[in-house]
Write a structure and sequence with these properties.
The complex is a heterotrimer of chains A (368), B (163) and C (307).
Chain A: E1 2-4, E2 7-11, H1 17-41, H2 46-58, H3 61-86, H4 94-111, H5 116-145, H6 149-169, H7 202-221, H8 223-233, H9 235-240, H10 245-272, H11 278-281, H12 285-296, H13 300-324, H14 330-349, E3 351-355
Helix pairs in contact in A: 1-2, 1-14, 2-13, 3-7, 3-10, 3-12, 3-13, 4-5, 4-6, 4-10, 4-12, 5-6, 5-10, 7-8, 7-10, 7-13, 8-10, 12-13, 12-14
Chain B: H1 9-13, E1 24-25, E2 28-29, H2 31-44, H3 61-73, E3 79-83, H4 91-107, E4 110-114, H5 118-124, E5 128-132, E6 135-140, H6 147-154
Helix pairs in contact in B: 3-4
Chain C: H1 3-33, H2 41-59, H3 62-86, H4 91-109, E1 124-125, H5 136-141, E2 144-145, H6 146-164, H7 166-176, H8 178-183, H9 188-214, H10 226-236, H11 241-260, H12 267-287
Antiparallel strand pairs in C: 1-2
Helix pairs in contact in C: 1-6, 1-9, 1-10, 1-11, 2-3, 2-4, 2-9, 2-10, 3-4, 3-9, 6-7, 6-11, 10-12, 11-12
Classes of the chains: A mainly alpha (368), B alpha+beta (163), C mainly alpha (307).
């Protein structure tokens, strides 16, 4: 407990929901303030920048649909990362798992010979499997050989990216694409349906929302969810209760990687309709999803909101590039800032500020 | 092997039993059974908590101790090893935990109580063995032994029946 | 080609490729020895690379570029120190934020420098006397960048400081048990800040090595995951500066050997080799049970008066 004038700062153990929401908004606001300095330093009026972004993204149907389209991969990856982070498994590999899903979908679309009505379901199933396999490898490495999960999942991103490059420059390069490093276009029966006049591939969006609901149920209502939470919160207690770290890690990365794989299916089957350069398939969705998940604070349902927020930021990044002639990397700066401010306000969450009148200093400090 | 601080009192109470019926059927948790068990345990062990859904970390030290006891003893164990079970607790909590241990003894559990609190040992134990530098110095019954005798053994003097 | 010249060639290229890794790893070792994980190496390196290139190109002096990279790296690390030591925030997330921020900022500010090759990159140098040692002299002391020699000297000096001086004891005890260090009268806060900032200085410098020496140009994202490999090497080296030197040479040699196989493999497979090696190296470290040598309080924020 500390005192500054009439304010008393007390530690508290459990922050209220209002406090979490309030401080998260505070972090975003602080990041926006710092961003306006960056706009200003770049010679762009921050007022103009923000009003342009607001008008073009939130103010038009096209803008809203762009937000939604960016939200889909962020939501799927984000929900997966929420699950992983609940078990304190540092999955930084959603980007690679997403690409693995995209590769599997491409195989189904172009090379599998699966008949038309089954094609799209098969893309999703195999996309999930591919992402899950790519996620399970680091889980095995972590439990069996103590390989740091941050490094292994990250390295797997690079490996998958170069694998995709090899595919599109080598064996899968489309003969009809004349020198470009693409695969051929998917046949029409492997294209996901879109919401009209937009690029929103709604089946993936529906899967994403369903995944969030399902993940919330798994975490709160199942034995697996219970064990995930014990492992994440208190490894000692988990060990004592005989919970298998291997089992929990495998399940967590299966779900986390699989969901990221589904995001990859959505990107290639819904938007690009072919496999192309890895940084065109995903604009870093797998990395941004880390922030989506961190902001959601362990709640898959909250990831729906936070992925929308970052969908907005991606759509804004496009606008900034086109309208204000600034590099798209500005979104990276903003994402980094938000993450810093988020962990900064986290400290505040565990303090409560109270205003006390004279002579009342010790009121309310009962018991221990 | 303490508690899982972020999880609720109810969820903490079923740790180690969470994968067995009635708490778990297939892969689903039976939340109703978990709750029922929690209400029962909170009452029986007098755990002071706003409710079964409160995060365990919000409880006071004594109540966390009661929670752990409730969790461990509800399985009716045949052997209980209690190491410093009342260490750092207030008088009320201490008394309650001693009562719980005696209750378990009446039920027929073997209890190995490890403590440095002589008064506690004299009032609870059926037999007292004194260890000095890893070696048992002797074994006495609290009704017949004097504090002085035990004190000497604690200082390293061999007495009585050595196991 | 005889086996002697083969070894010389491999060692030479391993060191050249490994120099930025060595600088970065030595820095991360110091930060982690003081108990602070900094996953922002990639971000600090890329900011260092950009500032080194910009300054070297503007002033015409590559050494000023390296200096600028070190200063920028140090300031970037200061941000991490503030969040992880002062605010006791989650060190993983703070480091990730630094990496995301650094990659974004360098991309934003670096657009005007893309595609220019550096006017005067650092010259190569030969150490008179030592170069005449058979095989090793040729491999280690001839025709390398000054930065490579500095890296080797740093490894030895930093090893000496860490294991043979009072400063080293202070740093290690902070990483092992900050409460004990505090009780011994060591300023835990200051040691952690200094080590993290020193780590940033070297990581920034490592970026500078890349952009004014190894590939004297600026390209966006030119660190390409080297910062993460640094963290893998830190573990592989069991937090020991001399083992870091060995680890970096081994890593560089593996990379170089893969490079020699390029006639048989597509180039994409060669490019993914370093990342596969990083995982491999950690798996080997796992088999060697290196983790037992990890600073005991690594990643745990120190709160005075709490056990």
């Amino acid at each position: 407990m500390k005192r500054f004038g009439p304010f008393v700062f007390e530690r508290r153990l459990a922050p209220t929901r209002t406090a979490i929401l309030g401080y998260s908004l505070l972090a975003i606001a602080a990041a926006l303030v710092v961003m306006s300095f960056i706009f200003w330093a770049y010679g762009v009026s921050p007022v103009k920048a923000y009003s342009t972004i607001g008008r073009t993204t939130l103010g038009t149907r096209f803008g809203l649909m762009e937000i939604l389209r960016r939200t889909i991969p962020l939501l799927l990856c984000g929900v997966g990362l929420v699950i992983a982070f609940r078990a304190k498994f540092w999955n930084i590999g959603a980007e690679g798992q997403l690409l693995a899903g995209a590769v599997a979908a491409t195989w189904v679309a172009l090379f599998s010979g699966i008949p038309a009505p089954w094609k799209i379901p098969a893309m999703f199933v195999l996309g999930f499997v591919a992402g899950a396999v790519w996620g399970i490898i680091p889980a095995l490495l972590k439990v069996k050989l103590q390989v740091n999960d941050v490094i292994s999942t990250l390295m797997m991103n690079y490996i998958m990216a170069y694998f995709v490059k090899w595919l599109i420059y080598g064996p899968w390069r489309g003969p009809t694409m004349r020198g470009f490093a693409y695969t051929d276009l998917f046949p029409r029966d492997a294209w996901l349906p879109l919401i009209r006049y937009s690029k929103v591939h709604w089946p993936t969006l529906v899967i994403g929302i369903a995944a969030a609901v399902l993940a919330a149920l798994i975490l709160s209502r199942t034995r697996l969810g219970y064990e995930i939470r014990v492992v994440g919160d208190s490894p000692d207690a988990a060990h004592y209760a005989g919970i298998s770290f291997l089992g929990v890690s495998l399940w967590v990365m299966l779900l986390s990687g699989g969901l990221a794989g589904l995001a990859g299916v959505g990107e290639v089957a819904g938007i690009h309709h072919r496999l192309l350069e890895p940084d065109h398939v995903s604009l870093g969705y797998g990395y941004t999803a880390i922030i989506v998940a961190w902001l959601a604070r362990g709640s898959p349902m909250a990831a729906i909101i936070t992925s929308l927020l970052f969908g907005l930021i991606f759509a804004a990044g496009d606008e900034i590039k086109v309208t204000l002639q600034m590099p798209f990397q500005i979104t990276g700066v903003f994402n980094g800032l938000i993450l810093f401010f988020l962990i900064g306000v986290e400290v505040l969450l565990y303090w409560r500020v109270r205003l006390v009148r004279k002579g009342q200093e010790w009121a309310g400090k009962a018991g221990s | 092997m303490g508690i899982v601080p972020e999880m609720s009192v109810a969820e903490n109470l079923i740790l180690k039993k969470h994968h067995r019926p009635p708490f778990c059927r297939g892969f689903l948790l039976n939340l109703r059974a978990v709750r029922r068990f929690a209400h029962h345990a909170i009452e029986e062990y007098e755990i002071m908590t706003p409710g079964p859904d409160t995060p365990a970390k919000l409880l006071s030290g004594g109540n966390i101790q009661r929670l752990i006891l409730a969790r461990e003893l509800s399985g009716e164990p045949a052997l209980i090893i209690a190491a410093h079970p009342t260490y750092g607790l207030d008088v009320g909590a201490t008394e309650q935990i001693r009562q719980i241990l005696l209750e378990q003894r009446r039920r027929g559990a073997a209890i190995l109580l490890i403590s440095e609190d002589l008064e506690e040992l004299m009032s609870l134990a059926d037999r007292i063995a004194v260890i000095f530098e890893g070696e048992i110095m002797g074994e006495v019954a609290p009704e017949t032994a004097s504090l002085e005798e035990i004190g000497l053994m604690m200082a390293g003097e061999k007495r009585g029946v050595v196991l | 080609m005889g086996w002697e010249s083969w070894i010389v060639d491999t060692l030479k290229r391993a060191l050249a490729y490994g120099t930025p890794l060595l600088w970065g790893t030595l820095g991360e070792i110091y930060a982690e020895r003081a108990g602070v994980v900094n996953l922002g190496v990639e971000g600090m390196m890329i900011l260092g690379a950009l500032s080194a290139f910009a300054v070297a190109q503007s002033t015409g002096n590559p050494w000023l570029g390296i200096l600028a990279a070190a200063v920028v790296g140090g300031f970037a690390a200061l941000i991490h120190a503030f969040f992880s030591v002062t605010l006791r925030a989650n060190q993983y997330v703070s480091g990730l934020a630094l990496t995301i921020f650094g990659l974004g900022l360098s991309g934003l500010l670096g657009t005007s420098w893309v595609g220019i090759s550096l006017k005067n990159p650092l010259p190569k140098a030969t150490i008179p006397g030592l170069e005449r040692i058979p095989i090793l002299g040729e491999a280690l002391f001839r025709g390398h960048s000054y930065l490579t020699y500095i890296g080797i000297v740093l490894a030895v000096v930093l090893w000496f400081i860490l294991y043979k001086t009072r400063w080293g004891i202070a740093i290690r005890s902070v990483g092992e048990s900050p409460s004990t260090a505090d009780a011994m009268g060591i300023n835990v806060f200051a040691v952690q800040y200094l080590c993290v900032i020193f780590g940033g200085v070297l990581a920034g410098g490592a970026g500078g090595v890349l952009s004014v020496e190894y590939r004297p140009a600026w390209t966006e994202g030119m660190t390409a995951g080297m910062g993460w490999i640094v963290i893998a090497l830190t573990i592989f080296a069991a937090w020991d500066p001399l083992q870091a030197l060995g680890g970096v040479v081994l890593f560089g040699a593996l990379y170089h050997l893969a490079y020699r196989l390029q006639a048989w493999f597509p180039p994409e497979f060669l490019k993914l080799m370093p990342y596969a090696f990083a995982i491999l190296v950690l798996a080997v470290a796992g088999l060697r049970k290196v983790k037992r040598g990890a600073p005991a309080s690594l990643g745990v924020p120190y709160v005075r008066g709490q056990r």
